[in-house]
Design a protein that fits this description.
The structure holds two protein chains of two kinds.
Chain A: E1 12-21, E2 24-34, E3 39-43, H1 50-58, E4 65-70, E5 73-74, E6 85-88, H2 100-110, H3 115-128, H4 144-156, E7 162-166, H5 174-191, E8 194-199, H6 202-208, E9 211-216, E10 219-224, H7 226-231, H8 236-241, E11 246-253, E12 256-259, E13 263-266, E14 271-277, E15 282-286, E16 294-304, E17 307-314, E18 319-325, E19 338-343, E20 350-353
Parallel strand pairs in A: 3-8, 3-9, 6-7, 7-8
Antiparallel strand pairs in A: 1-2, 1-4, 4-5, 9-10, 11-12, 11-14, 12-13, 14-20, 15-19, 16-17, 16-19, 17-18
Helix pairs in contact in A: 2-3, 2-4
Chain B: H1 9-39, H2 57-63, H3 66-99, H4 105-111, H5 114-117, H6 120-133, H7 140-165, H8 168-176, H9 181-210, H10 215-218, H11 226-236, H12 241-263
Helix pairs in contact in B: 1-12, 3-4, 3-7, 3-9, 3-11, 6-7, 7-9, 8-9, 9-12
The chains are: A alpha+beta, B mainly alpha.
Protein backbone atom coordinates (compact mmCIF):
# COMPACT_ATOMS: atom_id res chain seq x y z
CA UNK A 1 0.00 0.00 0.00
CA UNK A 2 1.38 3.39 -0.92
CA UNK A 3 -0.33 5.24 1.92
CA UNK A 4 -3.05 6.78 -0.20
CA UNK A 5 -6.41 6.95 1.49
CA UNK A 6 -8.56 3.90 0.77
CA UNK A 7 -12.12 3.45 1.86
CA UNK A 8 -15.43 5.23 1.57
CA UNK A 9 -15.62 8.93 0.87
CA UNK A 10 -12.99 10.51 3.10
CA UNK A 11 -14.12 12.29 6.26
CA UNK A 12 -11.75 15.18 5.61
CA UNK A 13 -11.00 15.97 1.98
CA UNK A 14 -8.46 18.63 1.10
CA UNK A 15 -7.95 19.30 -2.56
CA UNK A 16 -5.86 21.67 -4.65
CA UNK A 17 -5.18 23.91 -1.65
CA UNK A 18 -2.94 26.83 -2.60
CA UNK A 19 -1.86 29.81 -0.54
CA UNK A 20 0.57 32.58 -1.42
CA UNK A 21 2.00 35.32 0.78
CA UNK A 22 3.17 37.84 -1.82
CA UNK A 23 5.74 35.98 -3.90
CA UNK A 24 6.15 33.21 -1.38
CA UNK A 25 4.11 30.08 -2.10
CA UNK A 26 3.16 28.69 1.30
CA UNK A 27 0.95 25.92 -0.04
CA UNK A 28 1.13 24.54 -3.55
CA UNK A 29 -1.78 22.42 -4.68
CA UNK A 30 -1.99 20.31 -1.52
CA UNK A 31 -4.29 17.32 -1.45
CA UNK A 32 -4.98 15.11 1.55
CA UNK A 33 -7.77 12.68 2.38
CA UNK A 34 -8.36 11.56 5.94
CA UNK A 35 -10.68 8.82 7.16
CA UNK A 36 -13.04 9.10 10.12
CA UNK A 37 -11.18 8.43 13.36
CA UNK A 38 -7.78 8.66 11.74
CA UNK A 39 -4.78 10.51 13.20
CA UNK A 40 -2.63 12.16 10.56
CA UNK A 41 0.51 14.20 11.20
CA UNK A 42 1.78 16.97 8.97
CA UNK A 43 5.54 16.68 9.35
CA UNK A 44 8.10 19.08 7.97
CA UNK A 45 10.71 21.69 8.78
CA UNK A 46 9.62 25.21 9.69
CA UNK A 47 8.39 27.12 6.66
CA UNK A 48 7.24 23.98 4.85
CA UNK A 49 3.60 25.04 4.91
CA UNK A 50 2.28 22.67 7.56
CA UNK A 51 1.09 25.42 9.90
CA UNK A 52 -0.44 27.35 7.00
CA UNK A 53 -2.39 24.23 6.02
CA UNK A 54 -3.65 23.89 9.58
CA UNK A 55 -4.59 27.57 9.71
CA UNK A 56 -6.52 27.24 6.44
CA UNK A 57 -8.52 24.35 7.88
CA UNK A 58 -9.27 26.27 11.09
CA UNK A 59 -10.14 29.44 9.17
CA UNK A 60 -7.35 31.65 10.51
CA UNK A 61 -5.96 31.91 6.99
CA UNK A 62 -7.81 31.94 3.71
CA UNK A 63 -6.43 29.83 0.86
CA UNK A 64 -6.18 31.35 -2.60
CA UNK A 65 -7.52 28.22 -4.25
CA UNK A 66 -8.71 24.73 -3.44
CA UNK A 67 -11.36 23.14 -1.28
CA UNK A 68 -11.66 21.63 2.17
CA UNK A 69 -14.60 19.42 3.04
CA UNK A 70 -15.24 17.96 6.48
CA UNK A 71 -17.94 15.30 6.65
CA UNK A 72 -19.16 16.35 3.19
CA UNK A 73 -19.58 20.00 4.22
CA UNK A 74 -17.70 22.72 2.40
CA UNK A 75 -15.66 24.10 5.28
CA UNK A 76 -14.19 27.10 3.49
CA UNK A 77 -17.67 28.57 3.17
CA UNK A 78 -18.06 28.65 6.95
CA UNK A 79 -16.86 31.58 9.08
CA UNK A 80 -14.07 30.81 11.53
CA UNK A 81 -16.38 30.57 14.55
CA UNK A 82 -18.73 28.09 12.86
CA UNK A 83 -16.20 25.52 11.67
CA UNK A 84 -16.53 22.06 13.21
CA UNK A 85 -12.87 22.12 14.15
CA UNK A 86 -11.17 22.24 17.56
CA UNK A 87 -7.68 23.67 17.79
CA UNK A 88 -4.98 23.00 20.38
CA UNK A 89 -2.56 25.88 19.95
CA UNK A 90 1.20 25.74 20.08
CA UNK A 91 1.45 27.47 23.45
CA UNK A 92 -2.10 26.39 24.30
CA UNK A 93 -3.49 29.96 24.21
CA UNK A 94 -5.35 29.44 27.47
CA UNK A 95 -7.22 32.54 28.60
CA UNK A 96 -5.06 33.83 31.47
CA UNK A 97 -7.94 35.66 33.16
CA UNK A 98 -10.18 32.60 33.36
CA UNK A 99 -10.02 29.53 35.59
CA UNK A 100 -9.53 26.05 34.20
CA UNK A 101 -13.30 25.43 34.37
CA UNK A 102 -14.09 28.75 32.67
CA UNK A 103 -11.49 28.10 29.98
CA UNK A 104 -12.97 24.70 29.24
CA UNK A 105 -16.54 25.99 29.41
CA UNK A 106 -15.81 29.02 27.19
CA UNK A 107 -16.92 27.43 23.92
CA UNK A 108 -20.19 26.21 25.42
CA UNK A 109 -20.89 29.62 26.94
CA UNK A 110 -20.32 31.32 23.58
CA UNK A 111 -22.80 28.91 22.04
CA UNK A 112 -25.40 29.89 24.61
CA UNK A 113 -25.54 26.54 26.40
CA UNK A 114 -27.35 26.70 29.76
CA UNK A 115 -25.22 27.14 32.87
CA UNK A 116 -26.13 23.79 34.44
CA UNK A 117 -25.41 21.96 31.19
CA UNK A 118 -22.03 23.74 30.90
CA UNK A 119 -21.10 22.72 34.44
CA UNK A 120 -22.06 19.11 33.76
CA UNK A 121 -20.11 18.84 30.49
CA UNK A 122 -17.06 20.67 31.87
CA UNK A 123 -16.97 18.34 34.88
CA UNK A 124 -17.26 15.35 32.57
CA UNK A 125 -14.42 16.37 30.26
CA UNK A 126 -12.17 17.46 33.15
CA UNK A 127 -12.64 14.03 34.68
CA UNK A 128 -11.68 12.51 31.34
CA UNK A 129 -8.35 14.37 31.33
CA UNK A 130 -7.89 13.92 35.13
CA UNK A 131 -8.02 17.62 35.96
CA UNK A 132 -11.13 17.74 38.15
CA UNK A 133 -9.25 18.93 41.25
CA UNK A 134 -7.65 21.83 39.38
CA UNK A 135 -10.84 23.33 37.97
CA UNK A 136 -10.58 26.54 40.01
CA UNK A 137 -6.92 27.20 39.25
CA UNK A 138 -5.74 29.83 36.81
CA UNK A 139 -3.56 28.72 33.87
CA UNK A 140 -0.46 30.38 35.32
CA UNK A 141 -0.66 28.00 38.29
CA UNK A 142 -0.55 24.89 36.09
CA UNK A 143 2.39 22.86 34.84
CA UNK A 144 3.02 22.57 31.10
CA UNK A 145 1.47 19.13 30.95
CA UNK A 146 -1.64 20.28 32.84
CA UNK A 147 -1.98 23.30 30.55
CA UNK A 148 -1.86 21.00 27.56
CA UNK A 149 -4.64 18.84 28.98
CA UNK A 150 -6.77 21.94 29.63
CA UNK A 151 -6.22 23.03 26.03
CA UNK A 152 -7.24 19.58 24.78
CA UNK A 153 -10.31 19.51 27.05
CA UNK A 154 -11.31 23.00 25.93
CA UNK A 155 -11.10 21.97 22.28
CA UNK A 156 -12.94 18.67 22.81
CA UNK A 157 -15.82 19.86 24.98
CA UNK A 158 -17.58 21.54 22.05
CA UNK A 159 -17.52 18.20 20.22
CA UNK A 160 -15.69 19.18 17.05
CA UNK A 161 -15.60 16.80 14.11
CA UNK A 162 -11.89 17.35 13.64
CA UNK A 163 -9.17 18.11 16.17
CA UNK A 164 -6.14 20.15 15.05
CA UNK A 165 -3.00 20.22 17.18
CA UNK A 166 -0.22 22.68 16.38
CA UNK A 167 3.13 21.59 17.82
CA UNK A 168 1.17 20.38 20.81
CA UNK A 169 4.17 18.92 22.63
CA UNK A 170 6.70 21.64 21.89
CA UNK A 171 6.36 23.37 25.23
CA UNK A 172 6.84 20.18 27.23
CA UNK A 173 10.18 18.89 28.40
CA UNK A 174 11.48 15.81 26.66
CA UNK A 175 10.76 13.40 29.48
CA UNK A 176 7.12 14.39 29.78
CA UNK A 177 6.64 14.47 26.03
CA UNK A 178 6.70 10.76 25.28
CA UNK A 179 4.20 10.03 28.04
CA UNK A 180 1.82 12.79 26.92
CA UNK A 181 2.03 11.63 23.31
CA UNK A 182 0.91 8.13 24.25
CA UNK A 183 -1.82 9.51 26.56
CA UNK A 184 -3.18 11.84 23.94
CA UNK A 185 -3.17 9.20 21.23
CA UNK A 186 -5.10 6.84 23.50
CA UNK A 187 -7.61 9.55 24.40
CA UNK A 188 -8.24 10.53 20.78
CA UNK A 189 -8.64 6.89 19.77
CA UNK A 190 -11.01 6.23 22.68
CA UNK A 191 -13.23 9.12 21.58
CA UNK A 192 -13.02 8.06 17.93
CA UNK A 193 -11.92 11.60 17.12
CA UNK A 194 -10.32 12.48 13.80
CA UNK A 195 -7.15 14.51 14.35
CA UNK A 196 -4.41 16.32 12.48
CA UNK A 197 -1.17 17.00 14.30
CA UNK A 198 1.39 19.49 13.03
CA UNK A 199 4.99 18.93 14.06
CA UNK A 200 8.58 19.29 12.99
CA UNK A 201 9.55 16.43 15.29
CA UNK A 202 9.81 13.16 13.39
CA UNK A 203 9.80 11.03 16.55
CA UNK A 204 6.50 12.61 17.58
CA UNK A 205 5.05 12.04 14.11
CA UNK A 206 6.10 8.41 14.06
CA UNK A 207 4.85 7.83 17.61
CA UNK A 208 1.43 9.38 17.43
CA UNK A 209 0.01 9.00 13.94
CA UNK A 210 -1.78 6.45 11.82
CA UNK A 211 -0.35 8.16 8.77
CA UNK A 212 2.27 10.84 8.27
CA UNK A 213 2.20 13.51 5.56
CA UNK A 214 5.74 14.77 5.03
CA UNK A 215 5.73 18.33 3.71
CA UNK A 216 8.37 20.45 2.06
CA UNK A 217 8.24 23.78 0.22
CA UNK A 218 4.47 23.99 0.43
CA UNK A 219 3.92 20.55 -1.04
CA UNK A 220 2.97 17.23 0.43
CA UNK A 221 5.96 15.05 -0.43
CA UNK A 222 4.56 11.74 0.80
CA UNK A 223 1.65 10.40 2.78
CA UNK A 224 2.09 6.97 4.30
CA UNK A 225 2.02 5.06 7.55
CA UNK A 226 5.00 5.75 9.82
CA UNK A 227 6.83 2.55 8.95
CA UNK A 228 6.54 3.07 5.20
CA UNK A 229 7.68 6.67 5.57
CA UNK A 230 10.86 5.37 7.17
CA UNK A 231 11.39 2.23 5.09
CA UNK A 232 10.01 3.35 1.73
CA UNK A 233 10.53 7.10 1.45
CA UNK A 234 9.19 8.41 -1.85
CA UNK A 235 12.02 10.88 -2.42
CA UNK A 236 15.48 11.76 -1.13
CA UNK A 237 13.84 14.72 0.65
CA UNK A 238 11.62 12.43 2.72
CA UNK A 239 14.48 10.00 3.30
CA UNK A 240 16.71 12.74 4.66
CA UNK A 241 14.05 14.43 6.74
CA UNK A 242 12.86 11.26 8.46
CA UNK A 243 15.51 9.31 10.32
CA UNK A 244 19.23 9.34 9.70
CA UNK A 245 20.28 8.52 6.19
CA UNK A 246 23.31 7.81 4.03
CA UNK A 247 22.86 8.75 0.38
CA UNK A 248 25.35 6.87 -1.76
CA UNK A 249 26.01 7.56 -5.41
CA UNK A 250 25.96 4.62 -7.80
CA UNK A 251 25.32 3.77 -11.44
CA UNK A 252 22.47 1.63 -12.64
CA UNK A 253 22.07 -0.20 -15.92
CA UNK A 254 19.85 -3.02 -17.05
CA UNK A 255 17.67 -2.68 -13.97
CA UNK A 256 20.52 -3.25 -11.55
CA UNK A 257 22.53 -0.77 -9.48
CA UNK A 258 25.81 -1.94 -8.05
CA UNK A 259 27.29 -0.63 -4.83
CA UNK A 260 30.93 -1.04 -3.81
CA UNK A 261 31.42 -4.46 -2.26
CA UNK A 262 29.39 -6.07 -5.01
CA UNK A 263 25.97 -5.39 -3.53
CA UNK A 264 23.37 -5.49 -6.28
CA UNK A 265 20.10 -3.59 -6.00
CA UNK A 266 17.05 -3.68 -8.23
CA UNK A 267 16.86 -0.26 -9.90
CA UNK A 268 13.86 0.74 -11.96
CA UNK A 269 15.90 3.43 -13.67
CA UNK A 270 19.25 3.63 -15.43
CA UNK A 271 22.11 6.10 -15.17
CA UNK A 272 23.28 7.88 -12.06
CA UNK A 273 21.29 6.95 -8.98
CA UNK A 274 21.28 7.71 -5.27
CA UNK A 275 20.95 4.85 -2.83
CA UNK A 276 19.53 5.30 0.65
CA UNK A 277 21.18 3.14 3.28
CA UNK A 278 20.05 3.56 6.90
CA UNK A 279 22.77 3.63 9.61
CA UNK A 280 21.89 0.24 11.06
CA UNK A 281 22.09 -1.41 7.63
CA UNK A 282 25.90 -1.32 7.60
CA UNK A 283 28.14 -4.01 8.90
CA UNK A 284 31.41 -2.86 10.45
CA UNK A 285 34.24 -5.23 9.43
CA UNK A 286 37.97 -5.42 9.81
CA UNK A 287 39.71 -3.06 7.42
CA UNK A 288 41.25 -6.02 5.64
CA UNK A 289 38.00 -7.95 5.22
CA UNK A 290 37.41 -8.86 1.57
CA UNK A 291 33.65 -8.24 1.87
CA UNK A 292 34.15 -4.53 2.68
CA UNK A 293 32.91 -2.14 0.03
CA UNK A 294 34.60 0.82 1.71
CA UNK A 295 37.60 1.36 3.95
CA UNK A 296 37.38 4.19 6.44
CA UNK A 297 38.38 5.66 9.73
CA UNK A 298 36.19 6.41 12.75
CA UNK A 299 36.03 10.18 13.31
CA UNK A 300 33.33 10.34 15.97
CA UNK A 301 31.48 7.96 18.26
CA UNK A 302 28.52 8.63 20.53
CA UNK A 303 26.66 6.12 22.70
CA UNK A 304 22.87 6.53 22.42
CA UNK A 305 21.17 4.00 24.64
CA UNK A 306 21.61 0.50 23.34
CA UNK A 307 23.47 1.60 20.20
CA UNK A 308 26.55 3.60 19.31
CA UNK A 309 26.41 6.17 16.53
CA UNK A 310 29.61 6.52 14.54
CA UNK A 311 30.79 8.86 11.87
CA UNK A 312 33.17 7.06 9.58
CA UNK A 313 35.04 8.84 6.77
CA UNK A 314 36.00 6.74 3.77
CA UNK A 315 39.22 7.23 1.84
CA UNK A 316 37.33 8.88 -1.03
CA UNK A 317 35.93 11.54 1.32
CA UNK A 318 32.43 10.08 1.75
CA UNK A 319 31.18 10.41 5.32
CA UNK A 320 29.00 7.63 6.70
CA UNK A 321 26.64 7.67 9.64
CA UNK A 322 26.69 4.19 11.09
CA UNK A 323 24.85 2.63 14.04
CA UNK A 324 26.12 -0.47 15.81
CA UNK A 325 24.77 -2.34 18.82
CA UNK A 326 26.84 -1.37 21.82
CA UNK A 327 27.28 -4.95 22.99
CA UNK A 328 28.50 -6.14 19.56
CA UNK A 329 32.23 -6.40 18.69
CA UNK A 330 31.94 -3.07 16.85
CA UNK A 331 30.37 -1.39 19.87
CA UNK A 332 33.57 0.08 21.31
CA UNK A 333 35.62 1.44 18.42
CA UNK A 334 38.00 4.27 19.32
CA UNK A 335 38.23 7.39 17.22
CA UNK A 336 40.82 6.81 14.54
CA UNK A 337 40.13 3.08 14.24
CA UNK A 338 40.42 1.73 10.69
CA UNK A 339 37.42 -0.31 9.62
CA UNK A 340 35.76 -1.80 6.57
CA UNK A 341 32.10 -1.23 5.76
CA UNK A 342 29.60 -3.40 3.94
CA UNK A 343 25.87 -3.09 3.31
CA UNK A 344 24.01 -5.78 5.24
CA UNK A 345 20.75 -6.16 3.38
CA UNK A 346 20.23 -4.92 -0.17
CA UNK A 347 16.47 -5.38 0.24
CA UNK A 348 16.10 -2.45 2.63
CA UNK A 349 18.04 0.02 0.47
CA UNK A 350 16.03 2.47 -1.59
CA UNK A 351 17.14 3.63 -5.04
CA UNK A 352 16.38 7.16 -6.24
CA UNK A 353 17.15 8.94 -9.44
CA UNK A 354 20.21 11.19 -8.94
CA UNK A 355 19.03 14.73 -8.42
CA UNK A 356 21.28 16.47 -10.96
CA UNK B 1 35.70 27.81 45.13
CA UNK B 2 35.79 31.20 46.79
CA UNK B 3 36.75 33.05 43.58
CA UNK B 4 33.28 32.49 42.16
CA UNK B 5 31.73 34.69 44.83
CA UNK B 6 34.14 37.55 44.35
CA UNK B 7 32.75 40.41 42.36
CA UNK B 8 35.20 42.34 40.25
CA UNK B 9 35.97 45.84 41.52
CA UNK B 10 34.88 47.42 38.25
CA UNK B 11 31.52 45.64 38.55
CA UNK B 12 31.08 46.96 42.09
CA UNK B 13 31.86 50.50 40.98
CA UNK B 14 29.37 50.08 38.13
CA UNK B 15 26.63 48.82 40.43
CA UNK B 16 27.33 51.62 42.91
CA UNK B 17 27.14 54.18 40.11
CA UNK B 18 23.78 52.79 38.96
CA UNK B 19 22.44 52.97 42.53
CA UNK B 20 23.72 56.52 42.89
CA UNK B 21 22.11 57.65 39.62
CA UNK B 22 18.87 55.93 40.60
CA UNK B 23 18.74 57.61 44.01
CA UNK B 24 19.62 60.98 42.52
CA UNK B 25 16.84 60.67 39.93
CA UNK B 26 14.39 59.64 42.60
CA UNK B 27 15.41 62.58 44.77
CA UNK B 28 15.05 65.02 41.87
CA UNK B 29 11.60 63.63 41.12
CA UNK B 30 10.27 63.54 44.65
CA UNK B 31 12.10 66.29 46.57
CA UNK B 32 10.24 69.29 45.06
CA UNK B 33 6.92 67.71 45.98
CA UNK B 34 8.11 67.03 49.50
CA UNK B 35 9.27 70.63 49.87
CA UNK B 36 5.82 71.84 48.79
CA UNK B 37 4.16 69.54 51.31
CA UNK B 38 6.50 70.77 54.08
CA UNK B 39 5.83 74.42 53.29
CA UNK B 40 2.07 73.87 53.36
CA UNK B 41 2.28 73.26 57.14
CA UNK B 42 4.44 76.33 57.87
CA UNK B 43 3.22 78.86 60.41
CA UNK B 44 4.73 81.89 58.64
CA UNK B 45 2.49 83.75 56.21
CA UNK B 46 4.95 83.75 53.32
CA UNK B 47 6.51 80.93 51.31
CA UNK B 48 9.89 79.97 52.66
CA UNK B 49 11.88 76.80 53.25
CA UNK B 50 12.56 75.18 55.65
CA UNK B 51 9.35 75.66 57.66
CA UNK B 52 9.65 76.92 61.25
CA UNK B 53 6.39 75.64 62.73
CA UNK B 54 3.44 73.31 62.12
CA UNK B 55 -0.19 74.23 61.49
CA UNK B 56 -3.26 73.06 59.53
CA UNK B 57 -4.39 76.68 59.16
CA UNK B 58 -3.62 76.91 55.46
CA UNK B 59 -5.74 73.85 54.74
CA UNK B 60 -8.56 75.34 56.81
CA UNK B 61 -8.24 78.56 54.86
CA UNK B 62 -8.15 76.67 51.57
CA UNK B 63 -11.48 74.96 52.29
CA UNK B 64 -12.92 78.31 53.39
CA UNK B 65 -12.06 79.94 50.06
CA UNK B 66 -15.07 79.51 47.74
CA UNK B 67 -13.11 80.30 44.51
CA UNK B 68 -10.71 77.44 45.25
CA UNK B 69 -13.50 74.97 46.03
CA UNK B 70 -15.30 76.07 42.86
CA UNK B 71 -12.06 75.64 40.88
CA UNK B 72 -11.61 72.14 42.28
CA UNK B 73 -15.08 71.18 41.09
CA UNK B 74 -14.29 72.56 37.64
CA UNK B 75 -11.05 70.59 37.49
CA UNK B 76 -12.81 67.48 38.72
CA UNK B 77 -15.43 67.83 35.97
CA UNK B 78 -12.78 68.45 33.32
CA UNK B 79 -10.81 65.45 34.58
CA UNK B 80 -13.84 63.18 34.32
CA UNK B 81 -14.92 64.48 30.89
CA UNK B 82 -11.35 64.15 29.56
CA UNK B 83 -11.16 60.59 30.90
CA UNK B 84 -14.49 59.73 29.30
CA UNK B 85 -13.47 61.20 25.93
CA UNK B 86 -10.10 59.44 25.99
CA UNK B 87 -11.73 56.10 26.83
CA UNK B 88 -14.33 56.46 24.10
CA UNK B 89 -11.82 57.54 21.45
CA UNK B 90 -8.55 56.01 22.64
CA UNK B 91 -9.48 52.37 23.21
CA UNK B 92 -11.08 51.81 19.79
CA UNK B 93 -8.27 53.76 18.09
CA UNK B 94 -5.62 51.67 19.83
CA UNK B 95 -7.36 48.47 18.71
CA UNK B 96 -7.60 49.75 15.14
CA UNK B 97 -3.91 50.71 15.17
CA UNK B 98 -2.77 47.29 16.40
CA UNK B 99 -5.26 44.77 15.03
CA UNK B 100 -6.72 46.67 12.08
CA UNK B 101 -6.04 45.59 8.52
CA UNK B 102 -6.46 48.75 6.50
CA UNK B 103 -4.27 51.03 4.45
CA UNK B 104 -2.78 53.85 6.47
CA UNK B 105 -2.83 51.95 9.77
CA UNK B 106 0.82 52.81 10.41
CA UNK B 107 0.20 56.42 9.46
CA UNK B 108 -2.75 56.59 11.85
CA UNK B 109 -0.76 55.22 14.77
CA UNK B 110 1.84 57.96 14.28
CA UNK B 111 -0.70 60.69 13.51
CA UNK B 112 -2.63 60.18 16.76
CA UNK B 113 0.53 61.07 18.68
CA UNK B 114 0.80 64.40 16.93
CA UNK B 115 -1.26 66.60 19.25
CA UNK B 116 0.91 65.43 22.13
CA UNK B 117 4.08 66.50 20.29
CA UNK B 118 2.80 70.02 19.72
CA UNK B 119 3.55 72.33 22.70
CA UNK B 120 0.47 72.56 24.93
CA UNK B 121 0.33 76.35 24.59
CA UNK B 122 0.26 76.08 20.80
CA UNK B 123 -2.45 73.45 20.96
CA UNK B 124 -4.44 75.59 23.42
CA UNK B 125 -4.29 78.66 21.16
CA UNK B 126 -5.08 76.56 18.10
CA UNK B 127 -8.18 75.09 19.70
CA UNK B 128 -9.24 78.50 21.02
CA UNK B 129 -9.10 79.96 17.49
CA UNK B 130 -10.60 76.88 15.89
CA UNK B 131 -13.42 76.99 18.43
CA UNK B 132 -14.07 80.64 17.68
CA UNK B 133 -14.72 79.86 14.01
CA UNK B 134 -17.63 77.61 15.00
CA UNK B 135 -18.69 79.89 17.83
CA UNK B 136 -17.50 77.49 20.54
CA UNK B 137 -16.54 79.81 23.39
CA UNK B 138 -14.01 78.94 26.09
CA UNK B 139 -15.86 76.73 28.57
CA UNK B 140 -15.55 73.51 30.53
CA UNK B 141 -16.52 71.70 27.31
CA UNK B 142 -13.89 73.38 25.14
CA UNK B 143 -11.23 73.00 27.81
CA UNK B 144 -12.07 69.29 28.18
CA UNK B 145 -11.93 68.79 24.42
CA UNK B 146 -8.57 70.56 24.20
CA UNK B 147 -7.00 68.62 27.08
CA UNK B 148 -8.43 65.34 25.73
CA UNK B 149 -6.88 66.14 22.36
CA UNK B 150 -3.56 66.74 24.10
CA UNK B 151 -3.56 63.61 26.28
CA UNK B 152 -5.38 61.14 24.00
CA UNK B 153 -2.03 59.90 22.71
CA UNK B 154 -1.09 58.64 26.18
CA UNK B 155 -4.24 56.55 26.47
CA UNK B 156 -3.73 55.19 22.95
CA UNK B 157 -0.07 54.34 23.58
CA UNK B 158 -0.73 52.54 26.85
CA UNK B 159 -3.55 50.45 25.39
CA UNK B 160 -1.57 49.79 22.20
CA UNK B 161 1.44 48.60 24.17
CA UNK B 162 -0.69 46.14 26.10
CA UNK B 163 -2.51 44.96 22.98
CA UNK B 164 0.74 44.37 21.12
CA UNK B 165 1.79 42.00 23.87
CA UNK B 166 -1.53 40.11 23.79
CA UNK B 167 -1.05 36.86 21.91
CA UNK B 168 -3.23 36.87 18.79
CA UNK B 169 -3.69 33.15 19.41
CA UNK B 170 -5.99 34.03 22.32
CA UNK B 171 -8.37 35.76 19.93
CA UNK B 172 -8.05 32.92 17.44
CA UNK B 173 -8.79 30.43 20.21
CA UNK B 174 -11.88 32.39 21.15
CA UNK B 175 -13.12 32.46 17.55
CA UNK B 176 -12.31 28.78 17.18
CA UNK B 177 -14.47 28.06 20.24
CA UNK B 178 -17.45 29.70 18.55
CA UNK B 179 -17.23 33.30 19.73
CA UNK B 180 -18.28 36.10 17.41
CA UNK B 181 -15.95 39.06 17.03
CA UNK B 182 -17.95 40.99 19.59
CA UNK B 183 -17.94 38.09 22.05
CA UNK B 184 -14.17 37.78 21.65
CA UNK B 185 -13.79 41.47 22.38
CA UNK B 186 -16.18 41.35 25.35
CA UNK B 187 -14.87 38.15 26.98
CA UNK B 188 -11.18 37.99 26.02
CA UNK B 189 -9.71 41.25 24.71
CA UNK B 190 -11.44 43.72 27.02
CA UNK B 191 -10.76 41.87 30.30
CA UNK B 192 -7.10 41.50 29.34
CA UNK B 193 -6.87 45.19 28.39
CA UNK B 194 -8.41 46.40 31.65
CA UNK B 195 -5.11 47.07 33.49
CA UNK B 196 -4.01 49.28 30.60
CA UNK B 197 -7.39 50.98 30.36
CA UNK B 198 -7.38 51.76 34.10
CA UNK B 199 -3.84 53.09 33.93
CA UNK B 200 -4.74 55.19 30.90
CA UNK B 201 -7.82 56.48 32.70
CA UNK B 202 -5.72 57.45 35.72
CA UNK B 203 -3.18 59.34 33.64
CA UNK B 204 -5.78 61.15 31.56
CA UNK B 205 -7.81 62.07 34.63
CA UNK B 206 -4.76 63.55 36.34
CA UNK B 207 -3.87 65.47 33.18
CA UNK B 208 -7.45 66.73 32.86
CA UNK B 209 -7.38 67.79 36.50
CA UNK B 210 -4.13 69.71 36.49
CA UNK B 211 -3.21 70.62 32.93
CA UNK B 212 -2.50 74.34 32.61
CA UNK B 213 -0.76 74.91 29.27
CA UNK B 214 -3.80 73.96 27.20
CA UNK B 215 -6.38 74.95 29.81
CA UNK B 216 -5.21 78.53 30.25
CA UNK B 217 -6.48 79.46 26.77
CA UNK B 218 -9.59 77.33 26.66
CA UNK B 219 -11.17 77.42 30.12
CA UNK B 220 -14.47 79.19 30.71
CA UNK B 221 -14.19 82.67 32.23
CA UNK B 222 -16.48 81.80 35.07
CA UNK B 223 -15.19 78.24 35.28
CA UNK B 224 -11.56 78.67 36.19
CA UNK B 225 -9.91 75.30 36.78
CA UNK B 226 -7.67 74.75 39.77
CA UNK B 227 -4.26 75.18 38.05
CA UNK B 228 -5.34 78.52 36.57
CA UNK B 229 -6.74 79.65 39.91
CA UNK B 230 -3.54 78.51 41.57
CA UNK B 231 -1.41 80.51 39.16
CA UNK B 232 -3.21 83.74 39.91
CA UNK B 233 -2.96 82.90 43.59
CA UNK B 234 0.81 82.62 43.29
CA UNK B 235 0.91 85.94 41.46
CA UNK B 236 -1.31 87.83 43.89
CA UNK B 237 -1.08 86.19 47.28
CA UNK B 238 2.13 84.40 48.13
CA UNK B 239 1.02 82.55 51.30
CA UNK B 240 1.59 78.86 52.10
CA UNK B 241 -2.03 78.30 51.06
CA UNK B 242 -0.60 77.93 47.53
CA UNK B 243 1.49 75.08 48.87
CA UNK B 244 -1.55 73.61 50.60
CA UNK B 245 -3.49 73.55 47.30
CA UNK B 246 -0.52 71.94 45.58
CA UNK B 247 -0.18 69.40 48.36
CA UNK B 248 -3.86 68.51 48.00
CA UNK B 249 -3.31 67.95 44.30
CA UNK B 250 -0.27 65.79 44.96
CA UNK B 251 -2.32 63.76 47.44
CA UNK B 252 -5.02 63.26 44.82
CA UNK B 253 -2.49 61.98 42.24
CA UNK B 254 -0.86 59.69 44.77
CA UNK B 255 -4.23 58.28 45.81
CA UNK B 256 -5.28 57.65 42.21
CA UNK B 257 -2.01 55.97 41.24
CA UNK B 258 -2.02 54.04 44.50
CA UNK B 259 -5.53 52.71 43.89
CA UNK B 260 -4.77 51.78 40.30
CA UNK B 261 -1.50 50.07 41.07
CA UNK B 262 -2.80 48.14 44.08
CA UNK B 263 -6.08 46.95 42.58
CA UNK B 264 -5.00 46.29 39.00
CA UNK B 265 -1.28 46.62 39.22
CA UNK B 266 0.68 49.03 37.07
CA UNK B 267 3.28 46.28 36.95
CA UNK B 268 0.69 44.15 35.14
CA UNK B 269 1.18 46.49 32.20
CA UNK B 270 4.52 44.83 31.69
CA UNK B 271 3.17 41.28 31.46
Amino acid sequence: MDGAYVGLAPFVAIDGLTKRFGDHVALADCALAIGRGEIVTLLGPSGCGKTTLLRCIAGFAEPDAGRIAIDDTDTLALPVNRRPVGVVFQNYALFPHLTVAANVGYGLKMRGVAKAEIDRRVAEILALVSLSELKDRYPIALSGGQQQRVAVARALVVEPKLLLLDEAFNALDAKLRAGMQAELRKLIKRLGMTAIFVTHDQDEALAISDRVAVMGSGRIAQVANPIDIYDRPASPYVAQFVGTSNMLEARASGGVATLPGGIKLAAPISGNVQVLVRPQNFEILDASDARAGWQGRVTFGRPAGAIVEYEIDAADGTSFKIAALRDSPAGHLPVGAKVGLAVRDAGTCVVFEASS
Amino acid sequence: MSGAKKIALTDRIGVAAIYAIGLLSLALLVAPSLIVVAISFDTRSYVSFPPVGFTFDWYAKLFATPELIQAMWVSLKVGLIVTGMCLALGVPTAIACVRGRFKGRQALSVFVLFPHMVPGIVLGIAILFAGATINARPSIGLQSLAVACFILAVMIRIVMARLMRLDVALEEASANLGATRFQTFRHVVLPLLMPAIWAGAAFTFIEGFDNISVAIFTHGHRDRPLPVELMSLVQNDNTPMVAAVSAAQIALSVVILGVVSSTLGLEKLND
